[in-house]
Design brief:
- Helix 3 crosses helix 4 and helix 7 packs across helix 8.
- This protein has a two-stranded antiparallel sheet.
- The two termini are about 70 Å apart.
- The radius of gyration is 43 Å and the shape is elongated.
- It is mainly α and about 170 residues long.
Length: about 170
């Protein structure tokens, strides 16, 4: 609805407005500086044939101009995509992935199952599963493994036995 109203307003009296704009007096050239005006007047008085040469059309130049053929084409825009990414190296997943469709993992990354496995292994056997061994085994950087072992822990479920016989029995 709004587009049709806008179009109607835009096209209202279009021909008359265009004719009015075309028939306006064209702007005159900018006024020259007084110092150059006197120099031009002096040159025109000393060489009156130059004024005739300015307005006269030169047939030789017109013929040469007609022979000129200009074919312009826009330059092809080349998008700078930057350096191409290097192909990633992959490794096979370690351990049981519970029938997930994981075929390969990029080097330097681990899956959630592998992260839980290595955290649990390190917690249970810290002498054998050191940060260096984990980094080598899973193709990770040493600083990443150190941060992983420092800031992440696995959940630990503890079931406390009831202390007396009056405790509520689970159903």
């Amino acid at each position: 609805m709004g587009a049709s109203v806008a179009r109607a307003i835009r096209n209202f009296n279009l021909e008359n407005r265009a004719e009015r704009e075309i028939s306006k007096v064209k702007p005159s050239p900018a006024p020259r500086h007084p110092s150059t005006r006197s120099l031009l007047r002096e040159q025109m008085t000393s060489h009156p044939d130059v004024k005739g040469d300015i307005v006269r059309k030169d047939d030789k130049l017109l013929a040469l101009l007609k022979d000129v053929y200009v074919d312009s084409k826009d330059p092809v825009q080349v998008k700078d995509v930057g350096p191409l990414p290097e192909p990633k190296e992959y490794r096979l997943p370690k351990g049981n992935h519970f029938d997930m469709n994981i075929e390969n993992i990029p080097k330097g990354k681990i899956s959630v199952v592998e992260a839980l496995t290595l955290l649990n292994n390190h917690k249970l056997y810290p002498e054998t599963w050191t940060a260096e061994k984990i980094a080598k085994e899973y193709h990770l950087e040493q600083k990443d493994v150190n941060s992983l072992l420092k800031y992440f822990v696995t959940f630990e479920v503890k079931i406390f036995p009831p202390e007396d016989k009056k405790a509520i029995q689970s159903k």
